[in-house]
Amino acid sequence: MQSLPTFIVSGIGFFFLYYFEITNLWLIALFGVLLVVFAIFPTLNILLWEKDIPKIERFLLKNKKNLTFYTVYALANGLDEEIQSTTEKLVSKSKHRSRQALYKIGEALHFKDLEAANEELSYITAPAYRAYYEGFIRLEEGDLAQANRIIDETQNTWMKNALMAERERLAGHLDEAILYAEEAKKNSKGLQYYTLHKTFERELGI
Length: 206
Fold this sequence. Notes:
With 206 residues, the chain is mainly α. It contains 12 helices and no strands.
């Protein structure tokens, strides 16, 4: 359903075009683009930039019929049954093997199914995310040499710090883990920030 502000803006805009007899196709196209941006900006803000946890959570729950959004909520909050059911539905709906792999590896890592997680790695086409998930798998396997190599090569700041936080958590160094966790959160936004915040809240008590 179109939101009231968007409806009002679109009405004013079309009145403006009609009243001033603006028929230039470029101006009309520009207006259309601006209207689309205005309409989707609130959602983009939540997905990409927001850091207000209650606001993000309200958005996710309000849009829980969207399986992708609800899977984010379920994974972030450690809801076992919901993770299994939403992942199964997402995998069955997706025709892209790389996307299926992202859904499956998230579920596998949540349940510590390292064999299943390893099976999905090669299907992840984005190099940064493939390395990120492999880093977690190697940490869980106790392969610190390989995990540390991946951490050293990771360029993304929040990914690097999230991996280091997990490394220190597994080693029992909670103070160090919390420092890296806070750094990971500081360098993330939107749904990624929400996921990290809720995960560290459960695992590290922060």
